[in-house]
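Technical annex, item 7. During the second reporting period the consortium partners agreed on a shared format for inverse folding records so that results from different sites could be compared directly. Each record opens with the tokenized structure and is followed by the designed sequence. A conforming record, contributed by the partner at site C, is shown below for reference.
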């Protein structure tokens, strides 16, 4: 099992937005959680972002500070981080949204409840990663991450797995729960479109998101749950051995 150390990696989180104040244009969020094994089989330890914050955080003198982006696009800086710190939960951040068109669009998306997920752009550091064996796991263990190079934190609409399958059709309870979630998000997006606020780019992205959600709802409605039935147990048939026939042939 290997990590691409020289590549620019992304890691998404569906974490609660701690606070949002449209007046001050500030949003308080968690960009990462500690001591949880994620979908990349990584467990990020407290201290993993300490050096990056010291070298490129809001209080540093660096001209390449950790950026606050939209969709990991370096041409879409929506504001700047005014606070980055590690606490017992994870990487806590306070971002102030800018007054540019992209900042205004993000402000409306936060206010409308459209932005709910965040993701980080970073690099692994070869000597700060260790594979911990665990025979109870299907993967045989997990990666313990002691430090990364953090470059940016992004507000994302679709999330890390937004385009993957959304329905486990073998479980009816999940179907009901997912239908409620989809319905609620469709309502949020529809209201945002009706208001017509924001740039043309924002309204286009909302329209595409609405089409995506409607397609998932149709998929959910038209797919039958998978019912797994065990085949009937067929008793073992034991043929009777005819000793008399054997003796008659001797």
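Designed sequence (site C submission):
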């Amino acid at each position: 099992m290997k990590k691409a150390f020289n590549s620019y990696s992304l890691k998404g989180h569906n974490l609660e937005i701690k606070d949002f104040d449209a007046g001050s244009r500030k949003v308080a969020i968690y960009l990462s959680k500690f001591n949880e094994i994620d979908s990349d089989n990584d467990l990020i330890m407290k201290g993993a972002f300490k050096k990056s914050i010291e070298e490129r955080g809001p209080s540093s003198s660096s001209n390449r500070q950790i950026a606050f982006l939209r969709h990991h696009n370096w041409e879409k800086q929506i504001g700047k981080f005014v606070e980055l710190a590690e606490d017992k939960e994870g990487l806590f951040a306070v971002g102030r949204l800018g007054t540019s068109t992209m900042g205004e669009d993000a402000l409306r998306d936060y206010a409308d409840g459209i932005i709910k997920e965040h993701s980080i752009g970073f690099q692994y550091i070869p000597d700060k990663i260790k594979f911990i064996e665990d025979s109870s796991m299907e993967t045989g263990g997990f990666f313990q991450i002691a430090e990364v190079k953090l470059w940016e934190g992004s507000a994302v609409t679709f999330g890390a797995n937004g385009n993957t399958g959304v329905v486990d059709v073998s479980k009816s309870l999940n179907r009901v729960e997912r239908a409620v979630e989809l319905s609620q998000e469709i309502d949020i997006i529809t209201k945002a479109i009706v208001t017509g606020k924001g740039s043309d780019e924002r309204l286009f992205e909302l329209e595409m998101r609405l089409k995506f959600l409607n397609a998932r709802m149709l998929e959910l409605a038209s797919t039958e749950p998978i019912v797994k039935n065990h085949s009937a147990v067929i008793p073992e048939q034991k043929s009777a051995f005819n000793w008399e026939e054997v003796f008659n042939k001797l």
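The helical segments are 50-56, 101-111, 172-195, 200-222, 243-248. Residues 159-173, 226-234, 236-241 have pLDDT under 50 and may be disordered. All partners now use this format for quarterly exchanges.
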